[in-house]
Automatic annotation (TrEMBL), chain C:
Subcellular location: Cell membrane
One GO term (biological process): transmembrane transport
UniProt key word Membrane: yes
Matches recorded under Pfam families: BPD_transp_1 (PF00528)
GO CC annotations, alphabetized: plasma membrane
The entry's keywords: Cell membrane, Membrane, Transmembrane, Transmembrane helix, Transport
Stretches assigned to the ABC transmembrane type-1 domain: 80-281
Transmembrane segments: 12-38, 84-103, 115-137, 149-170, 191-213, 263-281
Domain of life of the source: Bacteria
Source organism per UniProt: Streptomyces sp. R39
Membrane-related topology note: Multi-pass membrane protein
SUPFAM superfamilies per the UniProt record, alphabetical: MetI-like
This protein's record includes keyword Transmembrane: yes
Protein name in UniProt: Carbohydrate ABC transporter permease
Amino acid sequence: MEMVHSNAHGRRPRRAGRVRGAALTATAVIGALTLAACSGGQSVGGNSSVADSGSKYGFKAASQDSKAQVTVWVDSTREPIAKAYNKAHPHAQVKIVTYDGNANGSNTFKTKTQLFDRAGSGWPDVAFTTDNNSASWGSFGGTGDLAAVNKGLVPQTTLDNFAKGSLDVCTVKGVTYCFRNDLAQNVLWYNKKLMDKFGYQVPTTWEQYQQLAGKVAAEHPGYLVGTAGDAWTPEIYMWAAQCPANDVTGAKTIKADTSDPKCVRAAKMLDRLIADKTMSTLSLFGSDFVKNEADKVLMLPGPSWYGGSVFQGTLKTPAGQIAAASPLKWADDDQTVTGDVGGGAWWISSHSKNLKAAADFATWVTGQAKYGSALAPTYPAYVPAARTWASETQKSGYYADDIVAPLSQAAGQVWSGWGSAQFSQEAIWAKVVQAGMAQGKTVVSQLPAWQTEIENQARTFGYEVTK
Amino acid sequence: MTATAGNRTRAGFRQVRAGHLFVLPYVVLLALFGVVPVCYSVYLAFTDAGGGFAGFSNFTRTATDYRFLPALGHVAVYLVIWLAMLSVLVVSLTLVVHQLASRRTKAVIRLAYYIPGALAGASSVLLWLFVLDPTVSPVAPLLKAMGSDHFTDVITPGHLPVIFAIIAFWTGAGGWILVLYGALNTIPADVIVAAKMDGAGRIRTALSIQLPMIRKSITYMLILAFAAGTQLFVEPQLISQASFGVVPNDYSVNQLAYQFAFTQNDFNGSAAIALDLLVIALVSTSLFVTRGRLFDTD
Amino acid sequence: MSTPASVTAQRWAWRSLTSVILIVFGIFFLVPVVWLLLAGAKTDHELVSANPFSPGSLQALRHNWGALMSFQGGAVKTWMKNSVLYALLALVITLAVSIPAGYALAKLRFKGRRLLLITTLVVMLMPTSALVLPIFLEVNYVHLVNTPLSVVLPFSFFPFGVYLAYIYFAEAVPGELLEAAKIDGCSEVGIFTRIALPLAMPVVALVGFFSFVQNWNNFFLPYVMLPGSNAYPMQVGLSQMLTSTPNFNPVVGANAEVSPPELVLATLISAAPVLVIFLLAQRYVVGGLTAGATKG
C-alpha cells in the first residue's frame, strides 16, 4: 500500500496553480536535456537486418569468443539437468540462473529481453521456457533476439533427430529458432480397470467416443470421459478436429475461421458431453476437481504429460489402472491427427558471444532422458532420448498397459495446421470461451466471440488476419 | 536598524544555504528516480518506435484499442465501490477503535487489522486461489450462500469489482486505519471533553467535531486511494493468475499499459496510457484539493 | 431528560454494538490469516480434502519445513538474507535523505521549496508501470544492473516519507523552539541535529516502518533489475516458487519442486519480519502521530 499521512501544508490554491505550471515547465526542460543526452544510445526492437545469409550462422552474430562463459536461464525443474551438464563438462562450465521459466503467462523471458534490447546488453545465452511461442516474436522479422539454429549453428543431422514436426512451432519462414525440450502430443488416456469393469471397449474414433460417452451417462452417471475446464481445451479437441483457428501462414499472417465445420463438429461434441455431464468443466488442477472427481475419470484425451502429472501427481490414481491409447480419429478424415499441449523449448540468443558453447549446451540437455537420477517429467522431443524415456517410464510399473506405442505413434501425428503465433491461444480461450462457459453459454454459441478475440489479438500484435 | 536588517539577511542567506543542503540528497534521488523517468515517459508517449515525433498518435491508437474502453469501464465501477468502502468503513472503524478505553485492546485490534497488509505478491495468488474456491475455502459457507458452488461462479464478471475492492480493503485498510487513528490523536482532548459537556453524543461528536478536524487526512487518503484505484493492477493481476487467465490480464487500464510495454514491446503506447492515468489523477487531485481544502491554512 | 437507567442501557447498547462491529471486522481480517497459519502444517492432500480449519500435524510441518529449506539448495535462506540487506540499506538511506528534506521543507525558507513539494506530488501520482523502463535504462547506464545498488538506490527514493516528515515538522515541532536556539547561536545544522531530530524520533520510526514494508514487499523492481537467482529478494523468489507448484505449472506434476503447503510456509516466513517491525514500531508509529497533540 502506498501510504502518506498528512494534515496540511499551508498553501493557497491560487498560487499552487501557478507554481504547478512552473513545475511542469521546469520538469519538461530537465527531461528534454536528459533525453537529448541519452537518445543517441536508444535501440529499438523489430530489427529485420539481423538476417545475414552470408555469415556463418545465417545472422549477424556478436564477435565470438570461445572462452566466454555461457549463461543459461532455466526453471527450477530444469535446474538439475543444467547442473548435470556442468558435471559432465568440467571445462565448459555454464552459469546457471533459475527463473520462473515463463510459466503461467508470466512472460518473464520476453519482458526481460525487451528491457535488455533497450539497454543493449544483459541477455542470457540460452533460455528455457515452458511454452514455445516465442519464435515469431524473436525471429529476424521480430525483435531479432533469437539465433537461427538451422543455418549453420547446428548440423542438420542433430535437428533431424527431433520428432517429426516438433520444430514447426519454432520455425518462421524456414528459419528454426529453438530446440523443443519435450513433446506434449495428445493421446487418449483411460482407466483400464474401470473400462474392464464396465465392459467398455476403448474407442478409436471421436464418433465412437461420443457414443460411449452417451452410454456412460446412462449407465454410470458421474463418470467422466474428458474435461474442458482448462485453457488448453482447444489444443486437445479443436486441434485434433483440424479446426482452422490458428493457422499461422507467415511471420505476420494468420488464417482463422472458427465457423468452419471442423470447428463446429468439435464444439458440438463438447456441448453434448458437457450437457450429459460426462465432460467436466472444472480445471484439472483445481482443488474442486481433485477433491470431487479424482476417482471418476474413465477416459481423458490429453497430452503425454497427463500420465505423470495428472494421474500420478495430482489425482494420485493408484498404480496399475491407467493406460494410454492412440489418438482418436474423426471418421470422415483421411488420417488420424492430434494436438499438442505446450512443450517447453530452449532458445539461443543471437547476441551470444559464444554461440558454439551455447548450442552445445542446448543440444546436450535436449538429448537427455534423465535429469540426474530422476526421469525427465515430460516426453523428450529428441527421438533417441524419447525411446529411453518411454521404456524407463514403462518399467516404472505405474501403467496398466503399454504406453510406449501410442505415445510414439502420436508423436508423429501432430497436425501442422495449428501454428504458434506470438500471442497465446490459451489466453484467448480462457478469457472468452471459458469465461462464457462459466456463465452457462455453449461452446457453439461462442465460436463467433472466439473468432473476434483471435482477430483482435492477432491485429494487436501486427498480424494480418484472413479467413 | 541596519544591523538588524543585515542580520536578517545573513540569517535568511544561511537558511537558504542550509535549506538547499538539507534537500540536496533528496533532490538528487527525486531527479534520478522521479523526474527523469516521468519526463522519459512523456518523451516516449509523443514519439514512435524509431524516436520520431508522433504527435497524439500513441494516445489515439491506445484509446481506440479494443481493450481500452472495457478496461476503463472496469476501473470506473471498481473505483466507485472501492472509494465508498474505504471512506465509510475505514473512517467508521477508526472512530470506533479510537473511542475504546483499553490501550491494550486498541493495540491488539490495530495489529489484527494490519496483519493482512504484511502479505503481498506471489503468495497472495495462492491464498486467493484457495479462499475463492468454495470447495476448499475457509469462507465456503459464505460463498455458497451467495450462490457460488465453483471457483468459476465466484469470479464471474459481475462479481469482480467487488472482489477486487474486498481484496484491496483487506490488505490496505489496516494501514489507513493506523494513519487516521494518528490523525484523530492530534485532536486535543479538551475539545472532545468540551463537546461532551455540551451534551453531544458520540455520533454527534464524531460527525461535527472529529471528522471536520481530520478532514485533511481523509482528503489525503481519498486522493491517494483514488490514484491507486485508477492505477488498479495488483488485485486483478492476482486473480488473473489464480484463475489461469479466465479473468484476463488486461482487465484494468494499468494492466493494459503493462501489456503494451512488455507483451507487445510497445513502450510508446504504454507511456501514452500511463500519461492518461496521470492526467486523470492530477485532475481529480486538484478537485479533491479544492473541495477538501487540503492546502488551506487553519 | 434521560434517567440514569436509560443512560446505562444506552451505554450498554453502544458498547455491544461497537464490540460486534469490531469482532465482525476482526474475523474478516483474520480468518484468511488463520487459515494460512494452519495450512503450513498440512500435507498437500489435507489442504484440499480436510476441513479448512483442521489443525494439520507437527509431522507435516516438519516435512514442509525440510522441503522448503532444501528447495534449490537452500535458496529461501539466501532470498531472505537478500531481502533484509536490500530493505535495511534502503531504509538507512531513506531516513538519511527524507528526514532532513522534510525538515527543510517545513521549517526553512528557500527558493524552490514549493516547486519541490509539487514535483514530489506529481511523481507520486505517476503509474509505476511507466517508470520501470527509464529506471532500468538509467541503472544500466551506470552499469549497476545485477548489483544490490540497482534496487537499493531506487528504493531509497521515498517521496511519501518526505511528505510524512514534512507534515510532522510543520505541525508538531514548534517554531519558537527553533527560533530560540537560533538566537542562542546554534547553526542550522546544529538546530536540526540537536533540537529537531530528537523531537522527531517518532516520525523517524514512522517513515522507517513504511519504507521497510514497501521495499520488503516490492516485487517488480528487483524482478527487473536482478537477473541472477542468487540475488533475488524473497518476493521474487516466492513468485518463482509459485510457478514451481503443480497448480501453476501443471506440467511438473509428480516431480513438482514445491507443494502449496510449502509455499504457504514460505509466505509466512516472508511476512514475519514485517509483523515484527510493526510490533516494534507500533508504539512509535502511534506515538509519532500522537505527538501532534502536544502542540494544541
